[in-house]
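Assemble and predict.
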Amino acid sequence: MLLTIALAATAISAQQPKRGGVFRIAEREAPGLDPHLSISFLTHSYVSLAYSQLVRFPNGPEQKSPTDFSILPDVAEKWTVSKDGTVYTFHLRKGVRFHTKPPVNGRELVADDVKYSLERFMAKSGFRERLEPVQAIDVLDRSTVRVTLKEPYAPFLNHLANPSFCAILPREAETKFRDFNNADAVIGTGPFVLKSYEKGVRVVFERNPSYFVKGVPYLDGVVLEITPDAVARLALLRSGKVEQAHIWGWLSPEEGKSLQKTNPEMVVTPTLVIGQGFIYMRTDQPPFNDVRVRRAVALAIDRKGWNDALLYGEGCLDAGPVPCALKDWKLDALKLEPAKAKYLVGHDPAEAKRLLAEAGYPNGLTIPMYHWPGYIPPWRSYYELAAENLGKVGITVELRPEEYGKYISTTALGKYDKAAMGPSTPFTDVDDFLYGRFYPELSTNQSHVADAELSKMLVAQRREMDPKKRKQIVDDIQRYLADKAYYVYVPQWPQYIAHPPSVKGFKHHDGYGLGMRLLYTWLDRT
Amino acid sequence: MTRYVLRRVALAIPTLFLVSVIVFAMMRFMPGDVVTRMVEGHAYAPTLAALRHDLGLDRPVHVQYLDWIGGIVLRGDFGNSYWTRQPILEEFVRRFPVTLELAGLTILISVVMGIAIGIVSAVRQDTASDYVGRVLAILALSVPYFGLAVLVVVLPSIYFKWTPVWTYVAFTADPLANLKIMIVPALVFGVTRAGPIMRIMRSALLDVLRQEYIRTAWSKGLSERTIVLRHALKNALIPVVSLVGLQTPLYLGGSVIIEAIFRLPGVGLFFFEALTRLDYPVVQSVNLIIAGMVVGLNLLIDLSYAYLDPRIRY
């Protein structure tokens, strides 16, 4: 199958973009710059300005929505996939050059760089399981790479396009600098060149004049003003010292509403982004091995009241198992049988009490709920509201806050007693929300689900290469999961994307990169 | 005196050794480990084992300790951060001047304010100026500096679209720009630290002013200015010096909150971020360096007593 998608780098119709200007962002310091030695979104966002990938997600005028994860060419101009979906042959653009920094000095990107980078990712990254099905990477000639998989793997291109995973790096830089954490080692083929990095102060990027897409970026540069404190970041935005107070321009609903009051000139756009929060339970042990108890938990959650009380009524109630924002894969609860959909979006305390009594808990039960209280603001209220909602049907919740290290190394990996609660990483492929959460023995399967019928479908969707057929399986999985209540999902809030009116052409995209988001962004300061 | 100094330096060695062992052990007792922090639940068991091997965390604990302390003692090598893989000493040396400058300005502001108001309060005891001084001291003591810092940053940004937060510039690069950046955080920090100094200054000076030799000075017909500033102040300063000495180690470690709010790339944030990321070598080495400085500083303070009070001999 030949997949060639033309690059739609068309100018924004309403206004002609202007060249020039420096885009300033206030953000925390990334824990490192090496995209394979850190899993932090900050690291990947920083260096996405400088690196390219084989393929990428659409951005700016190319994207249909913030969660448009269709695959566009990046340094690979085209690629073919074998009929059985196991052999990918990538044909690289010719004349793509690395930034002119020693020791690479602007040499051309070749197939060896792709092989080196993918193999380094598979050897070093904390995300390396994403490419676990890769069996071999072969360089066929200077501009052709063949990747052979053990089995068909539908999320493969999505993972290659995700800036968190597969940046194309030059080997010489690692040889000289030992890894890619040194600012001088950040040498890519991306739209911006890292010029200087004063630790704890600022990172300065300049426009790459030799970027392989002609005419972009419009900006002369990007400066990341390192600002650890959220209050200071917002103050900098309010006082016009930065264009964004978060690497992706995000503000919480409270911050966004406050900014709208104090700075009515700001462009503030509430945007539903990929995100998910849930109660997870030991479904392999009593009492949660009984589906009636899990359903009682699901029916106890007053999602509408929750949304009104904590999220200004702006949250999304139908938040799982596929997140609201992942629209291409989401099977809306309205399309499910109402008898099943109620366990995802319903609220029926009387039925919850009846189910508990039927399961042998006529007087209710007491459960612990492990959690990390340090997540961003609504979360602390989330735990309390969950405890209150469950208390009303007779499930007494003992909130058990944990220190972050303890939480992330035990509870978040499924090592806890009875019940816990927390947010999910916003993944870009639906596989992570399904296979990752429900397939037996995975540490991300926090509810310890082991359901043979479900497992078959989970494997089938990741092996199905036809997107339409895959969508049907994903729909079947959502229908199947609706009344199982393996996880109980809570409402998800929108992020407020904020910037001054001088910022034009900026569109939010949920794909972790910053370089591509700023490719079509320009400043109108006249 | 020389023997005293040598003895104190010799005593510093077991102190620093104990600090190194305690910090090393405490880091290992923290829940989870650096690798689980790095991957935050994304990686499966084989990946975690490989990462631990990369960082040398699969070696016996005593080997890890000896490797770290041996590097410092034998080669002056404080190791590399597990996260950034960059040399710790280099980063510390780059950041320490920021912390030192903030500490210096803070101490200067707090000492000048504290001593000045303290003297006025003591000399004009139970007058309006004493009451005002005491109220100011209590206010400075009771307003948390982080609250004041937030107000100073946020309020002008809302009402004047301006905020006293800038991009840090080193003093050596541009002294004026540097002072513009440092003065607000130093004032916030210094004003809130002036309270205790003022109170100690006032009570110490009141004590001294009641001594026999001061009465003698009055009877000799000396002016108030000479009595207070030349005869009384120096003796009253000893508890103030002790207090400043006790406060100084806190400044040397940097103030996480002040540095975070005012975007100052100091030691405090470096240490705090390392702690939250369980970056063992950074926490251990920074702790040891600061412990070394505190030991040295205490020695200097002890020696300064001999200058302030000639009766003290070593």
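DSSP finds 13 helices and no strands in chain B.
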